[in-house]
From TrEMBL:
Family: Belongs to the LysR transcriptional regulatory family.
GO cellular component, one term: protein-DNA complex
Keywords tagged on the record: DNA-binding, Transcription, Transcription regulation
Name of the protein this chain belongs to: LysR family transcriptional regulator
Superkingdom field: Bacteria
Residues spanning the signal sequence: none
GO molecular function annotation: DNA binding; DNA-binding transcription factor activity
Keyword Transcription regulation among record annotations: yes
Species classification: Bacteria, Bacillati, Bacillota, Bacilli, Lactobacillales
Domain HTH lysR-type: residue ranges: 1-58
Record's keyword annotation contains Transcription: yes
InterPro entries membership: LysR_HTH_N, LysR_subst-bd, WH-like_DNA-bd_sf, WH_DNA-bd_sf
Length: 286
């Protein structure tokens, strides 16, 4: 199996046509067809269904496509990391970032592209464990993530620590103090950011309370949006509450030291840091 065959195969699947793929690849159709036939013969399976409505992958073809995407992306990543491992600050920095981390980016970030015109910052958003997966697959260079998480083989740099807050619609704001105690949550419908579910449940257990959980969700922004519909009170990191706060809601810090979360910059220990990545990391110290 050759890289070019994977590129050919992926292009055919993306276009749904041998003819269109040949045009994109700047080659004639017969040799393209031969390469795919050779690939199918080597693997001993049919990869493509050829029909009147176009070309579609078989089950085996879909599996190969997922590997082809990863291998081609990994090859491109290796190319740009090795190419720019010298002394020149240039190339592409692929940064993964959780949606609530924009506020931790250094003010000097603009200098990266102003002073180094050959630098391009590519940002991919995802949740913490998705970003860790991309790091482990070398699909990104570094990531800004949020605790709690469990991972090995990464260098970590703490960027910010913040408290959890309650985003309270006016409907539920009657008589609440500015700072909410854990016991105050017992009589309120709660919207829980799922990553903190175990931490919250342990705290409720120790406090001998059983609050009503109106909803669990996988994104802290969604929790705030649900609170805005008056479904309940969202428990989220403070930066999320401030950034996505809607009309008719107030923010109340939760008076409990155990509910703290950190935003961290992480990158693989085994990866050689390019000059560009080194410069990016240094921006957080300036």
């Amino acid at each position: 199996m050759e890289f070019r065959q994977l590129v050919y195969f992926r292009t055919i699947v993306q276009t749904g046509s041998f003819t269109e793929a040949a045009i994109q690849l700047h080659m004639a159709q017969p040799p393209l067809s031969r390469q795919i036939a050779n690939l199918e013969a080597e693997l001993g399976v049919q990869l493509l269904n050829r029909g009147a409505k176009g070309v579609t992958p078989t089950d085996a073809g879909n599996l190969l496509l997922s590997y082809a995407d990863q291998l081609i992306q990994l090859r491109d990543q290796a190319d740009h990391q090795v190419r720019f491992l010298g002394t020149a600050v240039s190339g592409k920095l692929q940064l993964g970032m959780i949606s609530s981390a924009v506020g931790v980016l250094p003010n000097s970030l603009a200098e990266l592209t102003q002073h180094y015109p050959d630098v391009q910052l590519l940002v991919r958003e995802g949740h913490t464990y998705q970003l860790i997966d991309w790091l482990e697959k070398h699909q990104i260079d570094a990531a800004i993530v949020r605790t709690p998480f469990s991972v090995t083989g990464m260098t970590e740099q703490a960027l910010m620590e913040e408290r959890m807050v309650a985003v309270v619609p006016n409907t539920y704001d009657k008589g609440l103090s500015a700072n909410i105690a854990i016991a105050d949550l017992n009589d309120l419908p709660l919207i829980i950011y799922r990553r903190f579910r175990n931490i919250f449940n342990q705290t409720f257990f120790e406090a001998h309370i059983t609050p009503f959980i109106a909803s669990y969700c996988d994104d802290a922004r969604t929790a705030v949006q649900l609170a805005n519909t008056k479904l309940g009170i969202a428990l989220v990191p403070e930066s999320v509450a401030v950034a996505y706060l809607g009309m008719g809601m107030t923010v109340h810090p939760v008076n409990y030291a155990g509910w703290r979360t950190q935003v961290k910059l992480i990158w693989p220990k085994t990866s050689a840091k390019s000059p560009l990545l080194k410069l990016f990391i240094q921006l957080f110290h300036d």
